[in-house]
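Q: Joint fold for the lines below.
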Amino acid sequence: MNDLPHLRIDGLHERHPGLTEALGESYAEAACVCWSRHHQPPIIVLLRHDGNDEFRLIDFAVPDARVRKAHANEIDATEMGAYGVSLAAVEDVAGLVAVGRAETLTGADWYVAPNGAELDDLERCIRLEVSGTSAGASAYINRLLREKLTQAARGESNLPAIAAVVGFKALEVAISPLGAQG
Amino acid sequence: MTWADLHRASEAAAIEAEEAFRKGDASQAALLYAKAAELEQQALGTVDPTKIRTRGITAVSAVSLWYKAVAYERAEQLAYSMLADPAIPQFARVDLRNLVQAIWTESSKRAANVSFLPGQVFVSVKGGEVITGGAPLDLIVGKVQTIQAMFYRTVEFIKDMPLRLRGGPLREIQESCRPWLFQAAAGSYQFSVAIQEAKQLDFFKEDTRPDLVAHQFLEILKATASEDLVQLETVVPKAEYRNVFLRLSRNLAPTGKTFESIELRAATADTPVALTPEARKVINHTIKKNRPIHAEDSEAVEEEVIGTLRAVDLEKDFLNVIVDSQALHIVGLGDAMDDVIGPMVNKTVKVQVLRGARDSLRFRDIELDE
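A: Joint structure:
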């Protein structure tokens, strides 16, 4: 178990130039709260991408009462935690880091680019579409990913994007490109 | 300053605004969103027109920020000026139209001179016979009735009231927490539901946050469609409430014949609670597992009857279903409730019955057969 590579969700802002320290910490805290609802650390998380299955070790900090209270809203916590885990996962498997974000009607989209790329514009950045489920099983994670792929196939967005679906109880992250990359 | 400098400054202000909003400081959040919007609009002005994608994303971002700053006129003006620009890419055009629709909805709420609880639920019905902005009327009316019933039940549950077995909610509940229906941005057939704020300030218990009605509604819905029974028991500890929420949730979920999915989400969340035919199977399985078996029914054979529900009398404990022009009289409705069965009258239903002595039919369960 200890031989497995680690997936780091702490210090996200140090590796993702688009993240502030406060937001990166909030994402990591929310992820810990979501995992701790179902598991004790350390955990082994399955990263599924491009037909590959890779396992990563995560030794998350068990949240104290203050942190649990701050993330008591399950919907918000799952969403924030899923952002943190997705960013760490796409960094790990694809070498992409958050370089910027843009607001949308319902929240904000993160844009990722290869590590070290300068952000002069968003022309070559890839939009990261994130979904999360606190208790959903593997079948539900697949369903969420299929829905994203179906939406992309229907042409609801013609922006190159990557979808990441995080299952906290299932200990899975499913990642797939959506539409044309470029 | 370059686009990158201005956009980065806008991002920082927007992140702070989001943080303030999450902490419940709506006025500080609005101020910070306005600062972010001003910076993003300046960034938009500096984008090289050949950078079509960056320009589209920045335009949507700037309008969204004005919208979140509750500066609806600024948001609307910028959205229209961008929509009038033929160089704006298609993906941004779709997002800008959705924003305009959302701005209208929020402006209508203000004009209605009624206060609403924070948080609203967006509902979208997708696939099958549903087209963008249009859907069969009976389908939508049925879903709206069920959502209203589920909201009232959620309020009663939060107020820790005993389960209502017959009739509609108390007048006090109807008047204090009236659900309103608003148009929402069309992507499939969409609408939003907001809850009117109670005039009586102590309507909810001191330890209950009224802004959690929409949140609780979604949590319950999500738990009913989950295979994890522990999750459902945690969200709804009372068995009798679990029973009614499961049945209302099943009434919302599609069979797949008329439409493919119904998605419900909070205004601030990207991830919806999606009810699909698959979810309906999960709900049905949970209902079946929790159905009690009475001693007198242990020998009887369970059958399925499909027909038109013509009459229901919960007081006299029977319902009539017409099958091939013949009326079947089914008794023993038990814990069946008005808001679950009521919307099914004159529609095709699937009833699980137990055939007893002299062909008497005892009720087990009922659901719509679209």
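Q: Anything notable?
A: Helices of chain A lie at 12-15, 21-36, 65-70, 74-94, 138-153. The beta strands of chain A are 43-49, 52-58, 96-103, 108-114, 126-133, 161-167, 172-178.
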